[in-house]
Write a structure and sequence with these properties.
The complex is a heterodimer of chains A (104) and B (159). Chain A has helices spanning 31-43, 48-72; strands at 2-3, 14-28, 45-46, 76-88, 91-103. With 104 residues, chain A is an alpha+beta fold. The model of chain A has no long low-confidence stretch (mean pLDDT 86). Chain B has one domain: Hypothetical protein apc22750. Chain B (Translation Initiation Factor IF3). Helix content of chain B is 48%, strand content 26%. Chain B has 159 residues and is an alpha+beta fold. Classes of the chains: A alpha+beta (104), B alpha+beta (159). Chains A and B meet through strand 1, helix 1, strand 3, helix 2 and strand 4 of A and helix 2, strand 2, strand 3 and strand 4 of B. Strand 3 of chain A pairs antiparallel with strand 2 (60-73) of chain B.
Amino acid sequence: MIMTNVGSVPGKKIVEHFGIVQGSTVRAKHFGRDMMAGLKNLVGGELKGYTELLQESRQEAMDRMSEQARLMGANAVVNIRFATSSVAQGAAELFAYGTAVKVE
Amino acid sequence: MLEVIFGNLDLFLFLLLMAVGYSCGTIAEKRHYKSIIRREKELIKLMLVNAEGHFADGAVNNSFLVSGSMVVSNDYFKRLLAILRNFFGGRVKAYETLIDRARREAILRMKEEAKAKGAHMIVNLRLETSTIGRSANKKNSVGSIEALAYGTAVVMNRP
């Protein structure tokens, strides 16, 4: 599955459009990581646990999106956009959407 | 002497937290900025634009999505400083550097991923920030901030 966030796949021609595909996950981290983040809040700096968590969940959202595109018969997703929102305390929603197309 | 300390334990704890936050936060920030500047110099050859590129036929070998992100949080001392600033108004410098650091680090991580995969340029860069963590939904408080950078890495046929 080819993924880009430009309107086309550079160097390839789009032959068919399938419309919007999307994928999302809502994730919370486990208690230990949350505690560590609380401690880190004191001294500042990167919260590695959160960074990893968000990356994993974003990957999962992308996987779901590409699965949906595959079922439609597409071989590429173009114009991908990401959005993040916090739905509850300590939980975040990662959302990815794009246009499923067929390229050659 | 001990009686004074134990009598005002909460005050001393507060001062201790401030001192720890200030020293650790300042050292970490300086070190981070040093590493950012060094890596930015290393990666300056990798072209990065936020426009959609137009490529001639047969010029592009491969293209794929790359992304980088960083979650960062402020220290205790700077958070207090920001609260004070809220009172008087004006530039909140403590948070300016925080978001700047997170964004530049996210861009660097994206570039590193692209370089590892052999890309020659990145087009259509998009930047996004969001607040996450415990205090994300509370009013008037910034907990931790996530900066995300993503774009399309392009591998050319001839470099």
